[in-house]
Description:
Layout (H helix, E strand, L loop, with lengths): L18 H13 L5 H10 L3 H9 L5 H7 L3 H4 L3 H4 L7 H12 L3 H12 L1 H4 L4 H11 L1 H8 L6 H15 L2 H18 L3 H15 L8 H4 L4 H8 L5 H12 L6
Amino acid sequence: xxxxxxxxxxxxxxxxxxxxxxxxxxxxxxxxxxxxxxxxxxxxxxxxxxxxxxxxxxxxxxxxxxxxxxxxxxxxxxxxxxxxxxxxxxxxxxxxxxxxxxxxxxxxxxxxxxxxxxxxxxxxxxxxxxxxxxxxxxxxxxxxxxxxxxxxxxxxxxxxxxxxxxxxxxxxxxxxxxxxxxxxxxxxxxxxxxxxxxxxxxxxxxxxxxxxxxxxxxxxxxxxxxxxxxxxxxxxxxxxxxxxxxxxxxxxx
Length: 253
């Protein structure tokens, strides 16, 4: 008997939240903080219509309509090493280059992880909302650079996901940040990690809306000046938590 053809994905229709899927993925993520695929599964399960909302917001901010019209694929642009190598050391682009060299991460590598997690049909669709979802994915490591939260430590990731929740409203980010903070309380018996995560959220609320930035232009700005312009504060509680974890001999949670 012939099977019924599956309806193609329509990014214009918000997905229903799948709490069971999110909880299962969170458990896996908390048992292995390097399992980045689980992050994308949580986002897919919980973010509902937040990408659509952020796309519509982009159309209302100065220059946002132009960015949406151009539909630059940042994973491709940020993977152009000759372009990245052209930025001065003190710029956002120069700091991003140092980030790539120090971590071994890449924009295309992150894109591949997301594809493995939720499939190309959910990501590579020719649709404005799908493009917005790719944009949020591709600027994640740039936000590490801008905020100062390290990407190769669980604390830095937890702080950035809290920052991202404040910026985007994506419930998946809040779910991950809360899970990491609660686990830290159980393991360390101290609130330093939790305070750093809360600080990340507050800094995200206080900063300008980073989705509305022209990232090609932003990478050419001096890093310190860009942070001031964007209202990104120094992560003081994060530094305290880093020291606290190091003193306890913990590299993660």
